[in-house]
Structures are given as structure tokens and as C-alpha cells.
Known about the structure:
The protein is an alpha+beta fold. It has helices at residues 19-69, 197-224, 237-242; strands at 75-82, 85-87, 101-107, 110-121, 126-134, 139-147, 175-177, 189-191.
Amino acid sequence: MSDPTPLDAGVVSGLTRPPEAKVRASRLLATLGAAGAVAGLLIVLVFGVTQPTIEANKARRLQAAIHEVLKAPDRYDTLYVVGGTLVASLAPGSDVRKVQRVFVGYRGDRRVGFAIMAGEPGFQDVIGLIFGYDPSTKQILGMKVLETKETPGLGDKVEKDPFVSQFVGAQTPLVGVKAKDPTGKDRRQIQMVTGATISSRTVIRSINNALVRVGPLLETYRADGAGDDRPRPGQTPAARERGVRG
């Protein structure tokens, strides 16, 4: 009985692959790699084209929100929280995205209040908001939710009336309650949304915590800064117009 015929080169065995299969695999990998590179390039190009538009739209929405929570001021200035104080400009090379901003509004020469951005995790994701604040009375001037992914029909009610309208004239620190005092004497109370108490508490907590952080800075800036309508000792009329001490 003769020995089995040896396998010829190029014949498929359990341990070898024909050259044609190797070529096909290489071509497939090259095609996939090229497609991935093209897709990545397209994503970068689309991002580069659309990002300026996205940022411009965000800036417009923020500007509208500032005017809303400060009750349509004539103008507003941007301040930055740096080193435990409020400054009107940043050092060259600073990343504005990493610095907390505060907006101070004016009506004529009179300062009407500050708009402060805040945000903390809610039920689904971070709830971002902005609120107006008058440090002389410690009252909220208005509140607007800028960003939320809370449950439609429940959690998203924190960006609508009647929840939002409660903040106008509310005294700080805010207190979340299930039912307001019917006498209305406690101006700190904010009635939470039924079925969305987590989202409601997040909004209230965000405002209170933001004021803990920047409230003292606003008081200091109000005492020293431009736009204060109250005369200060030693301040000349001309200096008062400029908002500085004489």
C-alpha cells in the first residue's frame, strides 16, 4: 500500500491559507482603513464648519437669557471670578471656558443686578440655568433653564411656568416645599413640581450653592464697583458718574 500523496503548495489544509485569500484580506483591511480615514476627515471638516454657527447660536441664547432674568437692562458687562474676586478682563491666554462668568446689568447709570450661571446634576443629567440676583435685597430677579435632559412631561416642567415664575422676587436662600404657605409671608419658598421633586430641588440647590460661592463677591463688587446708584463718602459727582471714588 503506497503512502498518501503529499499536499501540493497552494492547496488548502487545516494550517495554510491560499495566497488569493491573503490578498483579499489585505485589500479589505486597506479599504476599511481608507473608509475610516475619510469618515474621520469628514467629521472634522463638518465640525469645523458648523462649530462657529453652534457657538454663535449659544451666545445669542445666552444674551437673550441675560436680558430676560435681568428684566431687559440697557446694557450689561461681563465679569470673571478670578482669585476670589470679580475682574473685568482676563490675562492673555486664559481659557474663558474654564472661568466662571457673572454678568452685571445696568439701566441708565443704575445697576439693576447680576446674572449668574449655575448647574448641577438632576435626575437625568446636569440642569444648566441662569438667574438674576439683586445683592442689595438678596432677591432673585428671574430664572431661566438653559439646558436640561429631564423626563418630558415631568422633569422638564422646571423650565416652564408656574415653576419658573415663582423665582421672581423670591428671597434667598431658597427653600423647596411641597406646598407653599398660603399666607405668602415666607418669600423664600419655592413649590416643587409634583412628580419631579429631584429636578426641582436641583434648580433650587444650584441657585443657593452659586450664591454661597459668589454672593460675597457680589456684595464687595457692589460696594466698590461702577454703576452703584448710591453716593459714597468722599465721592465727587464726576467720580460717581464713572463709578469710582473721588
